[in-house]
Amino acid sequence: MNRNSILREINERRSLRALSGEKIPRDVINTVIKAATLAPSCFNKQPWRFIAADDSTTLGKVFSALAEGNYWAKKSPAVIAVLTEISLGCTLSDRRDYALFDTGLAVMNLMIQAESMDLIAHPMAGFNPLKIKEIFKISDAYIVIALIAIARKGEDQGQLNEQHRELETSPRERKPIDEILFYNRWISA
Ligand SMILES: Cc1cc2nc3c(=O)[nH]c(=O)nc-3n(C[C@H](O)[C@H](O)[C@H](O)COP(=O)(O)O)c2cc1C
Q: What is the per-residue pLDDT for 12?
């Protein structure tokens, strides 16, 4: 693949875990969220919603909802909860509920913007969504899709377990293109 044909930010974005606890100003958070909101969405419904936790009390509550394996995220100076509700997006035939898709597009914009600002934006599914709903009093109709740890890169990898320390610098693993791209035919796995 010609690496030059891919934007630097897409190439270099990594889900790193060695975080700095340095505070992230709100204008920085607002900038990554602004990028998220510029994503396309079905009928321009913009079904994404975000809650940014950046004070120590709220962060402490959010950290308590993390899965054990996400211990490293407890250093984050900010965590963004990503949520949506199916009826906020297009709901078309054959299970095409676009709220999750559109919200994913928005999060990718957020992550590319973050990378361009030398920030880590590490998405996580490893958390207890019911706990997050309880903390923020989010109604059950919503889906808390992900938490995103937002931080500057940390120098200290000493707090990471061995597997996570290796992942910080290991090459990215991706499926070969013939497993995921089919020209003029479909082969089901
Ligand atoms: C929806 C989603 C959930 C994820 N959940 C976690 C998580 O709970 N903990 C974690 O350490 N990484 C999590 N990741 C990060 C992935 O492990 C990572 O994106 C993948 O290994 C590819 O690495 P890269 O992002 O550095 O290219 C998640 C990523 C996505 C998109």
A: 94
Ligand 1 pocket check: which of 115, 124, 132 to mutate, most ligand atoms within 8 Å of Cβ?
A: 124
- In degrees and rounded to multiples of 5, residue 118 shows phi and psi of 60, 35
Q: What is the 8-class DSSP label of residue 93?
A: T
The ligand 1 atom nearest the CA atom of 172: 27
Number of CB atoms found within 10 A of residue 35's CB: 19
Give the pLDDT confidence of 34-88 residue by residue, as tens digits: 999 999 999 999 999 999 999 999 999 999 999 999 999 999 999 999 999 999 9
Q: Is 182 helix (H, G, I), strand (E, B) or coil?
A: coil
Closest atom, ligand 1, to C-alpha of 127:
8
Q: Which residues line ligand 1 (CB under 6 A)?
A: 14-15, 70, 123-126, 146, 172
Residues 72, 160: Cα–Cα separation, whole Å: 7
**How far apart are the CA of 67 and the centre of ligand 1, in A?**
13
CA 129 distance to own-chain centroid: 15
Tell me, in angstroms, the distance from the centre of ligand 1 to residue 126's CA.
Answer: 9
